[in-house]
Amino acid sequence: MKEQLKDGLSRIKQGEEPDKETLKMLVAGNDEEINGTLISMADETRRKYYGNKVYMRGLIEFSNFCKRNCKYCGIRGKNSKAERYRLNKDEIIGCCANGYDMGYRTFVLQGGEDSYYSDEIMVDIISSIKGAFQDVVVTLSIGEKSEKTYRSYYEAGADRYLIRHETASPSLYDAVHENMHLKSRLECLYSLKRIGYQIGAGFMVGLPGQTDDDLAHDLLLLMKMQPHMVGIGPFIPHADTPFRDFPKGDVDKTVRMIALSRLMVPKALIPATTALGTADAFGRERGLMAGANVVMPNLSPMEDRSKYMLYDNKLCMGEESAECTATIRDKIESAGYELDMSRGDHIDWRKKQ
User: Fold this and answer.
1) Cβ within 8 Å of residue 214, ≥6 positions away
2) Rounded distance, CA 265 to CA 2, Å?
3) Helix (H, G, I), strand (E, B), or coil: what is residue 130?
4) CA neighbours closer than 13 Å in the CB half-sphere of residue 193
């Protein structure tokens, strides 16, 4: 079995699709020696394309209103206990200005699916950011839209779009979302890629009802799609959601999924997520050592950060704050990597410029 797993890792690293059974065993991670080999191979692969750079993104969580009712999410529309807020254009520009002065050159605008922000409003916000700051990237993470809407954002200057597929299993997708379907989610990703965005997909580890077979399908979907960014984090319950009583996702397995994603989507930009840092005190460092190469400190207004509570105990202050860049730098350097405040584009994207 050990030889089968070693051969499977070698094949994946060479760009070959692994057989399902071998991939499931790698996901399960029952062999510590193989797990160590996987982590080393992932770090080696990341260094091949990006060296030891860890790219910084400034995260602006500009609205926690959401029309969706995902069963795991603390800002779901049916959560009457959530303290709602939304930022206007001037406030968003102010967050960008603070970040720009700190050296940030990528701004990630993330929010719930909030119908208040019409296409006209979003186009104005995007174009205003691109007009106000030199050589910056605007990344959006605001859910499912029509191709026409995505195109209008792109033409206004949006560069990247994050929309995690959540799970490649249609039945599991239906079980954790209300009135949403995996087919529509994937159509959004392929529409964004057609338009010209750098796209980001990804999934959670430990969703209630999830199996190792489901996770293997997630990895195979990523390998087929080859998104520019891959976001992976552990499921963490929120007290005011239907999934409040389920255990959090396994951190060790989450780190393995990051490492396998690095091998299967070798050029991807992969964040060491806030959820990973929330679930484990050294989760972010472990993610970096397993092939992640992005961190996204928070640029949102201080008074609103604690309101964007997707799951319980979400880190939003301290080392999650963009204001703590020096502390973040120290932690990244202590793990053997170098902080990079530049745009941090996908390696193939750089070649096109």
Assistant:
1) 167, 168, 169, 172
2) 23
3) helix
4) 15
Tell me the sheet residues that pair with 232.
Answer: 203
Q: H/E element holding 190?
A: helix 182-195
> Under DSSP, is residue 109 helix (H, G, I), strand (E, B) or coil?
strand
> Furthest-apart CA pair in the chain: how many Å?
59
Amino acid identity of 91? E
Of 142, 232, 224, 157, the residue nearest 196 (C-alpha): 157
For residue 22, give the nearest of 213, 198, 169 by alpha carbon. Answer: 213
Alpha carbons 298 and 102: distance in angstroms, whole number:
12
DSSP string, 236-295: ---TTSTTTTSPPPPHHHHHHHHHHHHHHSTT-B-B--HHHHHH-TTHHHHHHHTT--EE
Task: Tell me the pLDDT tens digit for each residue of 53-79.
Answer: 999 999 999 999 999 999 999 999 999
Q: What is the mean pLDDT of residues 217-235?
A: 97
Token reading at 271:
């964040």
The confidence score (pLDDT) of residue 351 equals 58
Alpha carbon separation from 55 to 51, 52, 96, 274 (Å, rounded): 11, 10, 17, 15
